[in-house]
Amino acid sequence: MAERELELIFGPQHLGMVGNLSISLNVEGDTILSARVKPGYLHRGFEKLMEYRNWIQNFPLVCRINMIESEPVEMVYAMAVEDLAGIEVPERAQYIRTMIQEMSRLSCHFTAAWAYTSILGFDTPAQWAMGDRDYLLDLFEDLTGARVYHIYNMPGGVRRDLPEGFEDKLLAFLDAVHNRLPDYNSTFFENRLFYERASGIGKISPEDAIEMGGTGQVLRGCGIKHDIRKLEPYAAYSDMDLEVPTREAGDAYSRVLVIRDEMVQSVSILKQCIEKMPPGKVYEKTPNPFKWKVPKGETYVRVESARGEFGLYLVSNGGNRPYRAHFKTPSFVHGLVILERLLKGANIADVGNIMLSLYVIAPEIDR
Amino acid sequence: MKNDKTTTRLKEAKGSVLTPFKAIKYLFQKPHTLRYPFETKEPSERYRGFHLNDWERCTGCGNCADICPNQAIDMVKIEEIEAKPGKRNERPRIDYGRCCFCGLCVDICPPGSLRLSRDYIHIDHSTDSFKYIAKDEKTEQESFVPVDNYSVLNASLAHRKVDYEGFVSDLEHCLFETERVQMPEVEADERKLSFMEQVIGYSREEARKEAERCLECKLCEEACPAHMKISDYIDAIYEDMPDESMRKILEDNPLPSICGRICTRHCEKVCSVGIRGESLAIRWLKRFAADSVRDYKEAVEQNVSKPTGKRVAVIGAGPSGLSLAYFLRLRGHDITVFDALPAGGGTMLIGPPLYRLPREAIERDVNNIASLGVEFMFNTKVGKDVMFKDLLDKYDAVFIGIGTSKSRSTGIKNADKCILALDFLKENKIGKGTKISKQVIVIGGGNVAMDVARVALRLQNMQCPNEETAIKTVSLEDWDIMPASEDEIQEAKEEGVQFNPAWGPEEVVLDDEGNIKGLLCKKVKSVFDENGRFAPTFYEDQKMLIEGDMIIEAIGQAPDFSFIPEELFKELKFTSRRKVDVDENGMTSIPKVFAGGDIVNTNLDAITAIADAKRAAQGIDNFLREEV
């Protein structure tokens, strides 16, 4: 034990903390000797609750696992149920799903940009990011009827077809984003001040990243081309032309630049979706929800969320509700394992910085 | 000190510290934000806001309450709504403290009455106001706020805007299956050649698939005269347990094989799924349950109670008599059933043609009842072979379930040359069979007339194949008010029966030798008077001769009470609709005489007869136990 060591509780109520997460830091002066993440402030027992609701009733529940980005959660649950029940999803529904996944990714990246910029004091791009996210929420509202918890995926497709004129609205938004990205670059991503704050911070080697189970930007930020959309294409991703952006350095700055490049990719995928959108129906009816029994079996389904691999292990014992559900959320790995490691030796001022570069969203850790 | 790597990476962060000041240009642009509440944003077309519910369409089925993952919806009794079969007087109440606006309730709503509006603001000092019974306000009502006047200042749950629908039901995306599993049937060309059963019956998979559609709202159970536990037996079929299904059926209906074929289906008319789609094939599922167990006794334990030593005479082995015998026998009484026919079934035995109700189906039901120890006296006509008075003396109670065994005649000129429907049907079901002629006229537009026409058609095809034959029906009623069921009319048409709707018979025309030449008809002006009573009027100048050499009258049946001695008959009270008047125990105005079936109810079908028998069984049981 160092001579002047003291314990510092960082969060859940702390200016430098985003989300209900607490980190207990052992510090000496300004340097962190060790860190212990203390989750539990958002435990709602979703996985257990899912065992008491039927297959359809779980949709309004699962989306709440991640309020920033609810789409991958809905999607992964729908895909798992489809996998167990052997349901084919119509092609148009696959395209719409791809579309809403990318919208969701964009919206999540905007939120991340807001959180990151505001925690570091770049208030101007923070406001832009929030504003741009709201335009996306408007689009979600048009498409699904709700802004945050869309409850739009169902086993067998999506709940409603695209509303009239939706593609045009989306295209207009994408153009606006495209035009504004240079401004984000100059004020944030390529801002010298930000570079100085983030470069070399929270550095992780590719070996360690793999060892500790990192996914998403953590891997791509240290040069590993890992993207489930490419590795195991789901929805309509096999028809999409997409690049997996990577950076070599493995520090916070690299991870953020990966996020920026992904926004460009998302805009491109969304444009491809609109262009290639096939006609046809968007929903294959599933049996009466009160009686529906999904055949016995178990499955693990994963998608690439904005933050990394989002998976669901789902077991059915042949009943009308799940026997067991377990989510593998990216923030669980990044926020508990990797964060603790990266905080060792860092400055107190960089706690939020590192945490956000790892894209930690607290509700995902607890569930 | 910066190393080389950092220098190359700095190219990405290429700007100087002054670059961010480019953002100043946004000072001169329009802001993202709205100055709420002075500027408002219109919610999207399919916004999921507060609920709207059209009370006229809502059936109170409660599916919304069942699907709600948050248990935010409960069903509340509304006194001002009159409950009737298929419409409960309950309406959903939503607790907005729990509602998560997922809209599953909208997607499960069978009539599509529940919708979500685009309103989302509610301000009130009382938390009780968050529980809200959704209702469409009429535009003229005070609580209605037009869109233009609506603002955050007067927004409330109670100020609903009917013309502001958001997320609404869509049949293509609803959570229930609207299409029925098609029942396999023998094609018209094939079935008209013989008396083979028309309906083939569901396979196990088909039955399970059909049973899966049931939402278990139980509206059907309220509409069923016998209040059968329909949801339960359908669920048992879905669970692949036909025995359990039969057990549930036999609790309320001892004639599943019969009812599974010819039931008039009060249930299917009110089925939730049937409001916007095809109702569940409840009758065919019952038939599946009855057919899939080899033996009722093996499948279901039917325990006869300890003998009570009381004896009950049942007159008539039709649906009401059989059911009464069954229910009372299970309660331990000794039952004797008298019937003039040689076998059990009553109207079921002689009425429904073999292609709809084969003999084996009736036998299965009757044999099961006989196996419980019910004594049957067939070929025994009360009033001739045994006296009604003797029954009254010898038995502790008597049940009359004689049905309507006499066909009515039109009474037109030369009507005595015609054949009566029941005689014709009976002859062809349990008699020697009729020698059919080539040109047959059937008078009537009800289900019995359809049966007669289709039986006659089959006889023609069997007796004179390859010859020119015709079946012509004549009915007072036009297509729109024809009393026969739509299916029957459609099937008769497919088989080649000709229809002459809105013609009234005037005279049977004979040739010189006294043989039938045809039926003279006159055009019908109206069938019912302004009070809805049967009082046909005709255009006396529009007449038509329909040619034919055989005429069968199928215009209705009447009961035959001649077995009751006159002095007792005087005591028997009738209702204004000429039905036997019974009290809530099924007892007539004559002490210890009970009645049920077609002579009591106006539905004139098997399931209502069973319901009557159920009531009378309870009444007789109470009566006999009180006596002790």
Chart the SSEs and their pairings.
The complex is a heterodimer of chains A (367) and B (628).
Chain A: E1 5-10, E2 22-28, E3 31-38, H1 46-49, H2 59-62, H3 71-85, H4 91-120, H5 123-144, E4 153-154, E5 157-158, H6 166-189, H7 192-198, H8 206-211, H9 217-220, H10 228-231, H11 252-276, E6 297-305, E7 308-316, E8 324-328, H12 330-343, H13 351-357, H14 362-366
Antiparallel strand pairs in A: 1-2, 2-3, 4-5, 6-7, 7-8
Helix pairs in contact in A: 4-5, 4-11, 4-13, 5-6, 6-11
Chain B: H1 4-10, E1 51-53, H2 63-67, E2 73-77, E3 90-95, H3 104-108, E4 114-116, E5 131-133, H4 188-191, H5 204-212, H6 219-223, H7 230-238, H8 242-252, H9 256-262, H10 266-270, H11 273-276, H12 282-292, H13 296-299, E6 311-315, H14 319-330, E7 334-338, H15 347-350, H16 359-371, E8 375-377, H17 388-394, E9 397-400, E10 406-407, E11 419-420, H18 421-429, E12 439-443, H19 447-463, E13 470-475, H20 486-495, E14 498-501, E15 503-510, E16 516-528, E17 534-547, E18 550-553, E19 557-558, H21 566-569, E20 593-595, H22 606-627
Parallel strand pairs in B: 6-7, 6-9, 7-8, 9-20, 11-18, 12-13, 12-18, 13-14
Antiparallel strand pairs in B: 1-4, 2-3, 3-5, 10-19, 15-16, 16-17
Oligomer: heterodimer
Count, helices of chain A:
14
Q: Can you give the mean pLDDT of chain A?
A: 89
List the strand order in the largest sheet of chain A.
1-2-3
CA-based gyration radius of chain B: 33 Å
Determine the fraction of residues in helical runs of chain B and give it as a percent range.
25-40%
Instruction: State the fourth-level CATH superfamily of chain A.
Output: Cytochrome-c3 Hydrogenase, chain B
Number of helices of chain B: 22
CATH top level of chain A is: Mainly Alpha
Order of helices and strands of chain A: EEEHHHHHEEHHHHHHEEEHHH
Radius of gyration of chain A: 21 Å
Strand runs of chain A, count = 8
CATH fold-level topology of chain A: Cytochrome-c3 Hydrogenase, chain B
CATH class of the largest domain in chain B: Alpha Beta
- Give the helix/strand class of chain B: alpha/beta
User: Can you name the CATH architecture of chain A?
Assistant: Orthogonal Bundle
Coarse structural class of chain A: alpha+beta
* Name given to the CATH architecture of the largest domain in chain B: 3-Layer(bba) Sandwich
Q: Major sheet of chain A, described briefly?
A: 3 strands, antiparallel
Instruction: Give the overall form of chain B.
Output: elongated
Form type of chain A:
globular
